[in-house]
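hey so u asked for the seq, here:
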Amino acid sequence: MTKEQFLKLKSVRFFIFLWIVIFPILFIALPLLEMVTGERENEMVPLWAFGVWVFGPWAASILWKWFGGEEKKETK
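ran it, C-alpha cells below
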C-alpha cells in the first residue's frame, strides 16, 4: 500500500482529524484552562500531552519507514 492510498482511507482521515483537533482540546487546552482558573492543581498532564501530540507523528513516520510501509524497489 502506498502512502497516497493509505491517506485516502476514511478511517485514517478520521484518526488524523481526532489527532489534530480533538486530542489537543481534550488533553492540552482543557486541563490548562482548568489550571489557570484554579479548578485543578498544577499538573504535568498538558506538558506530557503536548509532547505526545508533537512527537507522536514523528515516531509513527519512523516506524512506517522501518517496518515496510512503502514498497521496496528492487535494483538489478
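Residues 46 and 58 are 19 Å apart (CA to CA). The mean pLDDT is 88.
lmk if thats what u needed
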